[in-house]
Amino acid sequence: MNNGITLSENVKGLMQLLSEEGKTVDEQMLLMLLNQMSEMHKEYQDTLRELNQELQNTREKLTQLEDNIQVDPQQKQILEQLVNVENKMKSGQEQLRSINNTLEIKAAEVIDNFKKTGISALNNTCQFLGLKEHLIALRDTSRSNASMMENSIDKIEKIEDEVKNALLHAKNAVRTIRGKELLDPSEERQLKIFDKLKAPYQKRLDKYNHRTEKLNMAIKKLENLEQRSERTSILGKLEENKEKIASTQGEKKESEQTKEQVCEPAR
To answer: Which of 53, 66, 107, 215 could be cross-linked to 14 through a Cys-Cys bond (beta carbons 3.0 to 4.6 Å apart)?
Structure first.
């Protein structure tokens, strides 16, 4: 089964229809959502590929900790965190597929209504498709992804402190037996292994913070386009009402003139 995001014929057809009927604002807003979905799908795919390699690399790195300190509990936590991130990415992919399926169904409905009722079926297309709601949902997911990366970094740093304390305790136990001065915790060097473990999470944190910013910008742009569309619609209605009033006044004047001619006595 192909788990990728594929633009359906119905959505393509609706985009073409919006373009042909001059609904450029609606077309722009739909395209904006589709672009965000496409970019996020690629990000999820890339992350899942990276995670497969990281799981293997992490197991290797954790076996390199010096002095044979027992790290099985910490190792389990770090590996579990990678699996949690993997599940989070798969959940994000599922959200994209769900939105894509919803768009496909609703696009088909709009096209069908257009065939029955004409251009009026294209009114409020963006609201009907739920474009703003979908963008907000994706933005919230991106925020959640960033938060997960922050939590992952915090957990790794906590594990790092635990391992460093265990290493220090073991070294000082040996130094006590040998009558040597105890090592100061502040002098204990950093474990480069944990810097390498944190690096991918920091990279993803930056990526999802950037994605959240892009989605916020897309939501703001959509709101501006909606406002512009509403103003255009209001101006159109005002102009239409003005024409109706002018037409009514013209008919009334013509009717009054007709009555005057009828009521005028014959000479």
So the answer is: 107
Taking only the tens place, the pLDDT of each residue in 186-230 is 656 666 778 888 999 999 999 999 999 999 999 999 888 877 766
Residues shown for the chain: 267
The pair of structure tokens assigned to 128 is: 């009907």
Task: Provide DSSP, 106-140.
Answer: HHHHHHHHHHHHGGGGGTTHHHHHTHHHHHHHHHH
> Contact 25/229 with Cβ under 8 angstroms?
yes
Cα separation of 27 and 124, whole Å?
Answer: 12
b/e burial code for range 29-40 (CB count within 10 A of at least 16 → b)? bbebbbebbeeb
CA angle 197–209–223, rounded 5-degree value = 160
Helix (H) or strand (E) holding 237: helix 192-263
- DSSP assigned state of 4: S
d(CA 72, CA 62): 9
Q: Which of 35, 10, 93 has the alpha carbon at shortest distance from 221?
A: 35
Query: Could you give the C-alpha distances from 263 to 36, 251, 252, 254, 266, in angstroms and in order?
Result: 72, 18, 16, 14, 9
Residue-wise pLDDT tens digits, 7-50: 889 999 999 999 999 998 899 999 999 999 999 999 999 999 99
The pLDDT assigned to 228 comes to: 72
Q: 148-152: which pairs have CB atoms within 8 A and are 24 or more residues apart?
A: 148/84, 148/85, 148/88, 149/85, 149/201, 149/202, 149/204, 149/205, 149/208, 150/205, 152/81, 152/85, 152/201
